[in-house]
Amino acid sequence: VIAAAVSGDPTKYNEAFLGKSNKDYCAWILDSEKWG
């Protein structure tokens, strides 16, 4: 859910907002060893 929202609005969820690129953030949030 979070990855879909983030990837769906790269203007809002940009590198300045996320601390990493949109693509890298989505990969990180989907990695079960890194999150949840």
Task: Please tell me about this protein's structure.
The chain is mostly helical and 36 residues long. The protein has one domain (1-36). Helix content is 56%, strand content 0%. The protein contains three helices and no strands. It is globular.
In short:
It catalyses: Thiol-dependent hydrolysis of ester, thioester, amide, peptide and isopeptide bonds formed by the C-terminal Gly of ubiquitin (a 76-residue protein attached to proteins as an intracellular targeting signal). 56% of the residues lie in helices and 0% in strands.
The CA-CA distance between the termini, in Å, is 13 Å
Q: Please, how many helices?
A: 3
Shape: globular
N-to-C order of helices and strands: HHH
The share of residues in helices is 55-70%
Rg to the nearest angstrom?
A: 9 Å
Mean pLDDT: 95
What's the structural domain tally?
Answer: 1
Q: Major β-sheet, in short? A: none
Please provide the count of β strands: 0
Q: Give the oligomeric state.
A: single chain
Portion of residues in beta strands equals under 5%
Which structural category fits the helices and strands? mainly alpha
Q: Low-confidence spans: pLDDT under 50, at least 5 residues?
A: none
GO molecular function: cysteine-type deubiquitinase activity
Enzyme class: hydrolase
Function: Hydrolase that can remove conjugated ubiquitin from proteins and may therefore play an important regulatory role at the level of protein turnover by preventing degradation.
Protein name: Ubiquitin thioesterase OTU
